[in-house]
Amino acid sequence: MFRKVLIANRGEIAVRVIRACHELGVRTVAVYSEADRGSLHVRLADEAFCIGPPPTAASYLNVPNIIGTAELLGVDAIHPGYGFLAENARFAEVVADCKMTFIGPPPQAIALMGDKAAAREQMKRAGVPVVPGSPGPVRSEAEAREAARETGYPLIIKAAAGGGGRGMRTVHGPDELPRALATAQQEAEAAFGDGRVYVEKYIEEPRHVEVQVLADRHGTVLHLGERDCSIQRRHQKLIEEAPPPRLRERTLAALARAAIRAAQVIGYTNAGTVEFLVDAHENIYFMEMNTRIQVEHPVTEMVTGIDLVKEQIRIAAGERLGYGQRDIQVRGCAIECRVNAEDPRHGFRPSAGTLTAFHPPGGPGVRVDTHCFPGYTIPPYYDSLVAKVIAWGRTRDEAIARMRRALVEFEIAGVATTIPFHLRVLDNAFFRRGEVYTNFIHRRLDPEAS
Ligand code: ADP
Protein backbone atom coordinates (compact mmCIF):
# COMPACT_ATOMS: atom_id res chain seq x y z
CA MET A 1 0.00 0.00 0.00
CA PHE A 2 1.05 3.60 -0.58
CA ARG A 3 2.45 5.70 2.25
CA LYS A 4 1.39 9.10 0.99
CA VAL A 5 -1.15 10.13 -1.67
CA LEU A 6 -1.60 13.59 -3.20
CA ILE A 7 -5.13 14.54 -4.23
CA ALA A 8 -5.02 16.69 -7.38
CA ASN A 9 -8.50 18.11 -6.92
CA ARG A 10 -10.76 20.20 -4.70
CA GLY A 11 -14.30 20.23 -3.34
CA GLU A 12 -16.32 17.23 -2.25
CA ILE A 13 -14.33 14.70 -4.28
CA ALA A 14 -11.05 15.76 -2.65
CA VAL A 15 -12.71 15.26 0.75
CA ARG A 16 -14.06 11.87 -0.41
CA VAL A 17 -10.59 10.68 -1.49
CA ILE A 18 -8.94 11.92 1.71
CA ARG A 19 -11.45 9.91 3.74
CA ALA A 20 -10.74 6.74 1.76
CA CYS A 21 -6.97 7.23 2.21
CA HIS A 22 -7.28 7.71 5.94
CA GLU A 23 -9.35 4.54 6.29
CA LEU A 24 -6.56 2.69 4.50
CA GLY A 25 -3.93 4.21 6.80
CA VAL A 26 -2.46 6.33 3.97
CA ARG A 27 -1.20 9.88 4.60
CA THR A 28 -2.68 12.63 2.43
CA VAL A 29 -1.48 15.79 0.72
CA ALA A 30 -4.03 18.37 -0.38
CA VAL A 31 -3.21 20.95 -3.04
CA TYR A 32 -5.24 24.14 -3.27
CA SER A 33 -5.61 27.40 -5.13
CA GLU A 34 -5.53 30.75 -3.37
CA ALA A 35 -9.34 30.78 -3.52
CA ASP A 36 -9.54 27.49 -1.58
CA ARG A 37 -7.24 28.36 1.33
CA GLY A 38 -9.99 27.81 3.91
CA SER A 39 -11.48 24.71 2.25
CA LEU A 40 -12.41 21.51 4.01
CA HIS A 41 -10.05 19.36 1.94
CA VAL A 42 -7.19 21.57 3.11
CA ARG A 43 -8.25 21.12 6.72
CA LEU A 44 -8.72 17.35 6.53
CA ALA A 45 -5.48 16.45 4.76
CA ASP A 46 -2.30 15.69 6.71
CA GLU A 47 -0.38 18.25 4.65
CA ALA A 48 -1.53 20.97 2.26
CA PHE A 49 0.26 23.04 -0.34
CA CYS A 50 -0.86 26.07 -2.34
CA ILE A 51 -0.32 25.53 -6.07
CA GLY A 52 -1.38 28.84 -7.56
CA PRO A 53 -3.96 31.58 -8.09
CA PRO A 54 -7.69 30.83 -8.45
CA PRO A 55 -8.04 30.25 -12.23
CA THR A 56 -7.89 26.50 -12.86
CA ALA A 57 -5.23 26.77 -15.58
CA ALA A 58 -2.90 28.28 -12.98
CA SER A 59 -3.77 25.86 -10.15
CA TYR A 60 -5.72 22.60 -10.48
CA LEU A 61 -4.54 22.15 -14.08
CA ASN A 62 -1.01 23.35 -13.36
CA VAL A 63 0.90 20.10 -13.94
CA PRO A 64 4.42 21.39 -13.10
CA ASN A 65 3.23 22.79 -9.76
CA ILE A 66 1.30 19.65 -8.85
CA ILE A 67 4.16 17.31 -9.79
CA GLY A 68 6.67 19.60 -8.06
CA THR A 69 4.61 19.53 -4.86
CA ALA A 70 4.29 15.76 -5.02
CA GLU A 71 8.05 15.33 -5.42
CA LEU A 72 8.87 17.84 -2.72
CA LEU A 73 6.61 16.11 -0.20
CA GLY A 74 7.68 12.56 -1.09
CA VAL A 75 4.31 11.39 -2.40
CA ASP A 76 4.06 7.92 -3.94
CA ALA A 77 0.73 8.21 -5.74
CA ILE A 78 -1.65 10.86 -7.13
CA HIS A 79 -5.45 10.61 -7.16
CA PRO A 80 -6.99 12.93 -9.77
CA GLY A 81 -10.64 12.76 -8.62
CA TYR A 82 -13.00 13.69 -11.48
CA GLY A 83 -12.74 16.64 -13.88
CA PHE A 84 -9.49 18.66 -14.03
CA LEU A 85 -6.66 16.20 -14.88
CA ALA A 86 -8.59 12.96 -14.34
CA GLU A 87 -8.90 12.11 -18.04
CA ASN A 88 -5.65 13.64 -19.20
CA ALA A 89 -3.52 10.77 -20.55
CA ARG A 90 -0.45 13.00 -20.72
CA PHE A 91 -0.75 13.79 -17.00
CA ALA A 92 -1.02 10.07 -16.19
CA GLU A 93 2.19 9.53 -18.20
CA VAL A 94 4.03 12.37 -16.46
CA VAL A 95 3.09 10.94 -13.07
CA ALA A 96 4.52 7.57 -14.09
CA ASP A 97 7.65 9.16 -15.60
CA CYS A 98 8.25 10.84 -12.25
CA LYS A 99 8.18 7.43 -10.56
CA MET A 100 4.82 7.89 -8.90
CA THR A 101 1.57 5.95 -9.38
CA PHE A 102 -1.42 7.48 -11.11
CA ILE A 103 -4.56 6.22 -9.34
CA GLY A 104 -6.54 5.44 -12.47
CA PRO A 105 -6.36 3.41 -15.67
CA PRO A 106 -3.33 3.06 -17.98
CA PRO A 107 -2.70 6.22 -20.10
CA GLN A 108 -3.46 4.30 -23.32
CA ALA A 109 -6.96 3.46 -22.07
CA ILE A 110 -7.57 7.11 -21.15
CA ALA A 111 -6.34 8.29 -24.55
CA LEU A 112 -8.43 5.76 -26.46
CA MET A 113 -11.67 6.51 -24.63
CA GLY A 114 -10.90 10.25 -24.70
CA ASP A 115 -11.25 10.14 -28.47
CA LYS A 116 -14.93 9.31 -28.67
CA ALA A 117 -14.90 8.72 -32.42
CA ALA A 118 -12.03 6.21 -32.10
CA ALA A 119 -13.66 4.59 -29.07
CA ARG A 120 -16.85 3.99 -31.05
CA GLU A 121 -14.92 2.23 -33.79
CA GLN A 122 -13.02 0.06 -31.33
CA MET A 123 -16.23 -0.91 -29.54
CA LYS A 124 -17.94 -1.72 -32.82
CA ARG A 125 -15.09 -4.07 -33.72
CA ALA A 126 -15.39 -5.72 -30.31
CA GLY A 127 -19.08 -6.44 -30.88
CA VAL A 128 -20.37 -3.82 -28.43
CA PRO A 129 -23.48 -2.16 -29.91
CA VAL A 130 -22.90 1.55 -30.66
CA VAL A 131 -25.23 4.34 -31.79
CA PRO A 132 -25.35 4.24 -35.62
CA GLY A 133 -23.28 7.06 -37.07
CA SER A 134 -20.23 8.19 -39.01
CA PRO A 135 -17.22 5.88 -39.11
CA GLY A 136 -14.89 8.36 -37.42
CA PRO A 137 -14.81 12.16 -37.52
CA VAL A 138 -16.53 14.08 -40.33
CA ARG A 139 -14.32 16.75 -41.87
CA SER A 140 -16.64 18.36 -44.40
CA GLU A 141 -20.27 19.08 -45.11
CA ALA A 142 -20.21 16.37 -47.75
CA GLU A 143 -19.01 13.81 -45.21
CA ALA A 144 -21.67 14.94 -42.75
CA ARG A 145 -24.36 14.50 -45.44
CA GLU A 146 -22.98 11.06 -46.21
CA ALA A 147 -23.29 10.11 -42.52
CA ALA A 148 -26.79 11.61 -42.39
CA ARG A 149 -27.88 9.16 -45.08
CA GLU A 150 -27.06 6.37 -42.59
CA THR A 151 -28.58 7.95 -39.50
CA GLY A 152 -31.50 9.92 -40.88
CA TYR A 153 -32.86 12.96 -38.98
CA PRO A 154 -32.78 14.09 -36.28
CA LEU A 155 -29.09 13.45 -35.74
CA ILE A 156 -26.59 14.69 -33.24
CA ILE A 157 -23.15 16.16 -33.90
CA LYS A 158 -20.64 15.52 -31.12
CA ALA A 159 -17.09 16.54 -30.35
CA ALA A 160 -14.56 13.70 -30.61
CA ALA A 161 -12.80 15.14 -27.57
CA GLY A 162 -16.15 15.95 -25.91
CA GLY A 163 -17.28 16.04 -22.32
CA GLY A 164 -19.81 17.83 -20.17
CA GLY A 165 -22.23 18.11 -23.07
CA ARG A 166 -20.11 20.73 -24.87
CA GLY A 167 -19.66 20.76 -28.63
CA MET A 168 -22.93 18.87 -29.08
CA ARG A 169 -25.65 19.91 -31.57
CA THR A 170 -28.94 18.30 -32.46
CA VAL A 171 -29.89 18.64 -36.13
CA HIS A 172 -33.52 18.22 -37.17
CA GLY A 173 -33.18 18.39 -40.94
CA PRO A 174 -30.72 18.80 -43.84
CA ASP A 175 -31.15 22.61 -43.86
CA GLU A 176 -29.72 22.89 -40.38
CA LEU A 177 -26.72 20.70 -41.09
CA PRO A 178 -24.13 23.19 -42.44
CA ARG A 179 -24.63 25.68 -39.61
CA ALA A 180 -24.77 23.05 -36.88
CA LEU A 181 -21.58 21.45 -38.20
CA ALA A 182 -19.74 24.77 -38.19
CA THR A 183 -20.90 25.72 -34.68
CA ALA A 184 -20.15 22.29 -33.24
CA GLN A 185 -16.65 22.42 -34.75
CA GLN A 186 -16.03 25.91 -33.39
CA GLU A 187 -17.37 25.01 -29.96
CA ALA A 188 -15.25 21.85 -29.86
CA GLU A 189 -12.15 23.78 -30.93
CA ALA A 190 -12.76 26.42 -28.26
CA ALA A 191 -13.56 23.96 -25.46
CA PHE A 192 -11.07 21.18 -26.17
CA GLY A 193 -8.54 22.59 -28.64
CA ASP A 194 -9.70 19.85 -30.99
CA GLY A 195 -12.36 20.70 -33.57
CA ARG A 196 -13.03 17.14 -34.74
CA VAL A 197 -16.69 16.12 -34.58
CA TYR A 198 -18.68 13.03 -35.55
CA VAL A 199 -22.27 12.25 -36.34
CA GLU A 200 -24.66 9.98 -34.44
CA LYS A 201 -28.27 9.01 -34.95
CA TYR A 202 -30.44 10.89 -32.46
CA ILE A 203 -32.05 8.30 -30.22
CA GLU A 204 -35.59 9.43 -29.38
CA GLU A 205 -36.57 9.60 -25.75
CA PRO A 206 -33.65 7.51 -24.55
CA ARG A 207 -32.60 6.67 -21.05
CA HIS A 208 -29.04 7.19 -19.92
CA VAL A 209 -27.95 3.99 -18.21
CA GLU A 210 -24.36 3.31 -17.21
CA VAL A 211 -22.44 0.40 -15.77
CA GLN A 212 -19.81 0.68 -13.04
CA VAL A 213 -16.81 -1.56 -13.63
CA LEU A 214 -13.80 -2.42 -11.49
CA ALA A 215 -10.74 -4.15 -12.91
CA ASP A 216 -7.57 -5.09 -11.07
CA ARG A 217 -4.10 -5.58 -12.55
CA HIS A 218 -4.37 -9.36 -12.31
CA GLY A 219 -7.07 -9.88 -14.93
CA THR A 220 -10.22 -9.66 -12.83
CA VAL A 221 -12.90 -7.45 -14.41
CA LEU A 222 -16.18 -7.08 -12.52
CA HIS A 223 -19.28 -4.94 -12.82
CA LEU A 224 -21.09 -3.38 -9.88
CA GLY A 225 -24.43 -2.99 -11.54
CA GLU A 226 -26.11 -0.15 -13.39
CA ARG A 227 -27.14 3.44 -12.67
CA ASP A 228 -29.86 5.45 -14.35
CA CYS A 229 -28.83 9.06 -14.96
CA SER A 230 -31.68 10.14 -17.20
CA ILE A 231 -32.76 13.16 -15.16
CA GLN A 232 -30.60 15.77 -16.87
CA ARG A 233 -30.69 19.45 -17.73
CA ARG A 234 -28.77 20.49 -20.83
CA HIS A 235 -27.07 17.07 -20.88
CA GLN A 236 -25.88 17.56 -17.29
CA LYS A 237 -26.96 14.94 -14.78
CA LEU A 238 -29.05 16.13 -11.83
CA ILE A 239 -30.43 12.94 -10.27
CA GLU A 240 -29.00 9.44 -10.47
CA GLU A 241 -30.22 6.14 -9.12
CA ALA A 242 -29.29 2.49 -8.76
CA PRO A 243 -30.61 0.11 -9.89
CA PRO A 244 -32.37 1.66 -12.92
CA PRO A 245 -36.14 1.39 -12.49
CA ARG A 246 -38.32 -0.52 -14.96
CA LEU A 247 -35.71 -2.23 -17.07
CA ARG A 248 -35.96 -5.91 -17.92
CA GLU A 249 -33.48 -8.30 -16.32
CA ARG A 250 -32.42 -9.24 -19.83
CA THR A 251 -31.53 -5.65 -20.65
CA LEU A 252 -29.54 -5.21 -17.44
CA ALA A 253 -27.64 -8.40 -18.18
CA ALA A 254 -26.89 -7.23 -21.74
CA LEU A 255 -25.60 -3.89 -20.42
CA ALA A 256 -23.34 -5.58 -17.88
CA ARG A 257 -21.97 -7.98 -20.49
CA ALA A 258 -21.25 -5.17 -22.96
CA ALA A 259 -19.53 -3.10 -20.26
CA ILE A 260 -17.26 -5.95 -19.19
CA ARG A 261 -16.38 -6.63 -22.82
CA ALA A 262 -15.57 -2.93 -23.36
CA ALA A 263 -13.24 -2.89 -20.36
CA GLN A 264 -11.59 -6.16 -21.36
CA VAL A 265 -10.81 -5.27 -24.97
CA ILE A 266 -8.96 -2.11 -24.03
CA GLY A 267 -7.02 -3.68 -21.14
CA TYR A 268 -8.76 -1.43 -18.64
CA THR A 269 -7.80 -1.34 -14.98
CA ASN A 270 -9.16 0.63 -12.01
CA ALA A 271 -12.71 2.02 -11.71
CA GLY A 272 -14.53 3.07 -14.86
CA THR A 273 -18.01 3.70 -16.17
CA VAL A 274 -19.42 2.55 -19.48
CA GLU A 275 -22.29 4.79 -20.59
CA PHE A 276 -25.16 3.62 -22.77
CA LEU A 277 -28.32 5.01 -24.24
CA VAL A 278 -31.33 2.70 -23.94
CA ASP A 279 -34.23 3.35 -26.30
CA ALA A 280 -37.94 2.72 -25.72
CA HIS A 281 -37.58 -0.85 -27.02
CA GLU A 282 -34.67 -1.41 -24.64
CA ASN A 283 -32.10 -1.57 -27.41
CA ILE A 284 -28.76 -0.62 -25.92
CA TYR A 285 -26.11 1.61 -27.51
CA PHE A 286 -22.61 2.29 -26.22
CA MET A 287 -22.06 6.04 -25.90
CA GLU A 288 -18.72 6.50 -24.15
CA MET A 289 -16.54 5.28 -21.31
CA ASN A 290 -15.51 7.57 -18.48
CA THR A 291 -12.09 6.52 -17.29
CA ARG A 292 -12.35 7.85 -13.75
CA ILE A 293 -14.49 7.88 -10.62
CA GLN A 294 -17.83 9.58 -11.30
CA VAL A 295 -19.81 12.14 -9.36
CA GLU A 296 -22.64 9.62 -8.98
CA HIS A 297 -20.50 6.74 -7.65
CA PRO A 298 -22.12 6.84 -4.15
CA VAL A 299 -25.42 5.32 -5.34
CA THR A 300 -23.49 2.21 -6.39
CA GLU A 301 -21.64 2.20 -3.06
CA MET A 302 -24.94 2.37 -1.18
CA VAL A 303 -26.47 -0.63 -2.96
CA THR A 304 -23.34 -2.82 -3.11
CA GLY A 305 -21.58 -1.83 0.14
CA ILE A 306 -18.30 -1.53 -1.78
CA ASP A 307 -16.15 1.58 -1.27
CA LEU A 308 -15.20 2.43 -4.85
CA VAL A 309 -12.52 4.97 -3.97
CA LYS A 310 -10.75 2.56 -1.62
CA GLU A 311 -10.92 -0.05 -4.39
CA GLN A 312 -9.32 2.45 -6.80
CA ILE A 313 -6.43 2.97 -4.40
CA ARG A 314 -6.01 -0.76 -3.68
CA ILE A 315 -6.03 -1.58 -7.40
CA ALA A 316 -3.47 1.13 -8.18
CA ALA A 317 -1.26 -0.26 -5.39
CA GLY A 318 -1.29 -3.60 -7.25
CA GLU A 319 -3.61 -5.47 -4.89
CA ARG A 320 -6.08 -8.08 -6.10
CA LEU A 321 -9.79 -7.33 -5.86
CA GLY A 322 -10.07 -10.58 -3.92
CA TYR A 323 -13.73 -11.27 -4.73
CA GLY A 324 -15.73 -12.37 -7.74
CA GLN A 325 -18.86 -11.37 -9.61
CA ARG A 326 -21.04 -13.62 -7.46
CA ASP A 327 -19.91 -11.82 -4.31
CA ILE A 328 -21.45 -8.57 -5.54
CA GLN A 329 -25.10 -8.17 -4.58
CA VAL A 330 -27.30 -5.19 -5.24
CA ARG A 331 -29.44 -4.50 -2.16
CA GLY A 332 -32.30 -2.03 -2.17
CA CYS A 333 -32.30 1.23 -4.07
CA ALA A 334 -30.26 4.45 -3.83
CA ILE A 335 -30.85 7.91 -5.28
CA GLU A 336 -28.51 10.88 -5.49
CA CYS A 337 -29.53 14.53 -5.88
CA ARG A 338 -26.85 17.02 -6.86
CA VAL A 339 -27.45 20.14 -4.84
CA ASN A 340 -25.93 23.01 -6.82
CA ALA A 341 -25.60 26.67 -5.89
CA GLU A 342 -27.85 27.67 -8.77
CA ASP A 343 -31.19 29.38 -8.82
CA PRO A 344 -33.77 27.17 -10.54
CA ARG A 345 -36.26 30.07 -10.41
CA HIS A 346 -33.96 32.17 -12.58
CA GLY A 347 -32.77 29.83 -15.30
CA PHE A 348 -30.38 27.97 -12.99
CA ARG A 349 -28.00 30.92 -12.86
CA PRO A 350 -24.98 30.39 -10.58
CA SER A 351 -25.39 31.76 -7.07
CA ALA A 352 -21.95 32.25 -5.51
CA GLY A 353 -21.77 33.64 -1.98
CA THR A 354 -21.29 32.82 1.68
CA LEU A 355 -23.25 30.06 3.40
CA THR A 356 -24.74 31.90 6.34
CA ALA A 357 -26.39 28.66 7.43
CA PHE A 358 -25.49 25.11 6.48
CA HIS A 359 -27.03 22.17 8.24
CA PRO A 360 -27.01 18.92 6.23
CA PRO A 361 -29.58 16.19 6.86
CA GLY A 362 -28.87 12.88 8.58
CA GLY A 363 -30.79 9.92 9.89
CA PRO A 364 -31.30 6.40 8.54
CA GLY A 365 -30.21 5.73 4.97
CA VAL A 366 -28.96 9.25 4.27
CA ARG A 367 -25.44 10.17 3.19
CA VAL A 368 -24.19 13.66 2.36
CA ASP A 369 -20.91 14.20 0.49
CA THR A 370 -19.89 17.83 0.75
CA HIS A 371 -16.98 20.17 1.32
CA CYS A 372 -19.20 22.94 2.66
CA PHE A 373 -19.73 24.19 6.22
CA PRO A 374 -21.34 27.21 7.89
CA GLY A 375 -19.51 30.40 6.90
CA TYR A 376 -17.94 28.82 3.79
CA THR A 377 -17.78 31.10 0.76
CA ILE A 378 -18.43 29.41 -2.58
CA PRO A 379 -15.76 30.74 -4.94
CA PRO A 380 -16.99 31.84 -8.36
CA TYR A 381 -14.14 30.08 -10.19
CA TYR A 382 -15.22 26.44 -10.03
CA ASP A 383 -18.32 24.26 -10.41
CA SER A 384 -21.43 24.99 -8.41
CA LEU A 385 -21.81 21.67 -6.58
CA VAL A 386 -22.60 22.29 -2.92
CA ALA A 387 -23.46 18.79 -1.77
CA LYS A 388 -24.53 15.39 -2.98
CA VAL A 389 -27.41 13.95 -1.01
CA ILE A 390 -27.72 10.19 -1.31
CA ALA A 391 -30.66 8.25 0.12
CA TRP A 392 -30.94 4.49 0.42
CA GLY A 393 -34.14 2.48 0.91
CA ARG A 394 -35.15 -1.18 0.77
CA THR A 395 -37.46 -0.17 -2.05
CA ARG A 396 -37.43 2.71 -4.51
CA ASP A 397 -40.43 4.25 -2.75
CA GLU A 398 -38.59 4.21 0.55
CA ALA A 399 -35.51 5.78 -1.05
CA ILE A 400 -37.65 8.54 -2.58
CA ALA A 401 -39.40 9.20 0.75
CA ARG A 402 -36.06 9.42 2.54
CA MET A 403 -34.64 11.74 -0.11
CA ARG A 404 -37.67 13.99 0.21
CA ARG A 405 -37.38 14.06 3.96
CA ALA A 406 -33.61 14.74 3.75
CA LEU A 407 -33.95 17.61 1.26
CA VAL A 408 -36.66 19.26 3.34
CA GLU A 409 -34.38 18.98 6.39
CA PHE A 410 -31.37 20.44 4.56
CA GLU A 411 -30.87 23.99 5.78
CA ILE A 412 -28.83 26.22 3.47
CA ALA A 413 -28.91 30.00 3.60
CA GLY A 414 -26.91 32.64 1.78
CA VAL A 415 -27.14 31.13 -1.70
CA ALA A 416 -29.96 29.77 -3.85
CA THR A 417 -29.84 26.01 -4.46
CA THR A 418 -31.46 23.41 -6.69
CA ILE A 419 -33.28 21.78 -3.74
CA PRO A 420 -36.75 23.16 -4.69
CA PHE A 421 -36.24 21.79 -8.18
CA HIS A 422 -35.30 18.33 -6.86
CA LEU A 423 -38.42 18.27 -4.70
CA ARG A 424 -40.55 18.93 -7.76
CA VAL A 425 -38.98 15.98 -9.57
CA LEU A 426 -39.42 13.70 -6.54
CA ASP A 427 -43.11 14.62 -6.36
CA ASN A 428 -43.71 14.07 -10.05
CA ALA A 429 -46.01 11.12 -10.75
CA PHE A 430 -44.01 9.96 -13.78
CA PHE A 431 -40.76 10.02 -11.84
CA ARG A 432 -42.40 8.09 -9.01
CA ARG A 433 -43.45 5.41 -11.47
CA GLY A 434 -39.89 5.22 -12.77
CA GLU A 435 -40.80 6.68 -16.15
CA VAL A 436 -37.63 8.58 -16.89
CA TYR A 437 -35.84 9.64 -20.07
CA THR A 438 -33.23 12.27 -20.87
CA ASN A 439 -35.88 14.81 -21.96
CA PHE A 440 -37.88 14.24 -18.75
CA ILE A 441 -37.53 17.81 -17.51
CA HIS A 442 -38.72 19.27 -20.79
CA ARG A 443 -41.57 16.82 -21.22
CA ARG A 444 -42.83 16.24 -17.71
CA LEU A 445 -41.75 19.17 -15.60
CA ASP A 446 -40.80 22.42 -17.09
CA PRO A 447 -40.11 23.11 -20.78
CA GLU A 448 -38.63 26.45 -19.70
CA ALA A 449 -35.96 24.90 -17.49
CA SER A 450 -34.58 22.45 -20.05
P1 ADP B 1 -20.66 14.31 -22.67
O1 ADP B 1 -19.46 13.43 -22.59
O2 ADP B 1 -20.38 15.65 -23.28
O3 ADP B 1 -21.42 14.39 -21.37
P2 ADP B 1 -22.33 12.20 -23.80
O4 ADP B 1 -21.92 11.54 -25.05
O5 ADP B 1 -22.11 11.48 -22.51
O6 ADP B 1 -21.65 13.66 -23.74
O7 ADP B 1 -23.86 12.61 -23.89
C1 ADP B 1 -24.48 13.36 -22.86
C2 ADP B 1 -26.00 13.25 -22.96
O8 ADP B 1 -26.45 13.68 -24.23
C3 ADP B 1 -26.54 11.83 -22.84
O9 ADP B 1 -26.70 11.43 -21.51
C4 ADP B 1 -27.89 11.97 -23.56
O10 ADP B 1 -28.82 12.62 -22.73
C5 ADP B 1 -27.55 12.93 -24.69
N1 ADP B 1 -27.19 12.18 -25.93
C6 ADP B 1 -25.94 11.85 -26.31
N2 ADP B 1 -25.94 11.17 -27.47
C7 ADP B 1 -27.22 11.08 -27.87
C8 ADP B 1 -27.89 10.48 -29.01
N3 ADP B 1 -27.22 9.86 -29.97
N4 ADP B 1 -29.24 10.56 -29.05
C9 ADP B 1 -29.93 11.21 -28.09
N5 ADP B 1 -29.38 11.79 -27.02
C10 ADP B 1 -28.03 11.72 -26.88
Overall description:
- By secondary structure, the protein is α+β, with helices and mostly antiparallel strands.
- It folds into three domains: 100 residues, Rossmann fold, CATH 3.40.50; 70 residues, ATP-grasp fold, A domain (Dna Ligase, domain 1, 2-Layer Sandwich); 243 residues, D-amino Acid Aminotransferase, Chain A, domain 1 (2-Layer Sandwich), CATH 3.30.470.20.
- Strands 13-12-9-10-11-14-21-19 form an eight-stranded antiparallel β-sheet, with helices on both faces. It has a five-stranded parallel β-sheet with strand order 3-2-1-4-5.
- Bound molecules: adenosine-5'-diphosphate (ADP).
- Adenosine-5'-diphosphate binds next to strand 8, strand 12 and strand 13.
Would you spell out the secondary-structure blueprint of this structure?
Elements: E1 4-7, H1 11-23, E2 27-33, H2 40-44, E3 47-52, H3 63-72, E4 77-79, H4 89-97, E5 101-102, H5 107-114, H6 116-125, H7 141-151, E6 155-159, E7 169-171, H8 177-192, E8 197-201, E9 207-215, E10 221-233, E11 236-242, H9 249-265, E12 270-278, E13 284-290, H10 297-304, H11 308-316, E14 333-340, E15 342-343, E16 349-350, E17 353-354, E18 357-359, E19 366-370, E20 377-378, E21 385-393, H12 396-409, E22 411-413, H13 419-426, H14 429-432, H15 440-445
Parallel strand pairs: 1-2, 1-4, 2-3, 4-5
Antiparallel strand pairs: 6-7, 6-8, 9-10, 9-12, 10-11, 11-14, 12-13, 14-21, 15-16, 17-20, 18-22, 19-21
The structure holds adenosine-5'-diphosphate (ADP).
The site of adenosine-5'-diphosphate has 19 residues, from strand 8, strand 12 and strand 13.
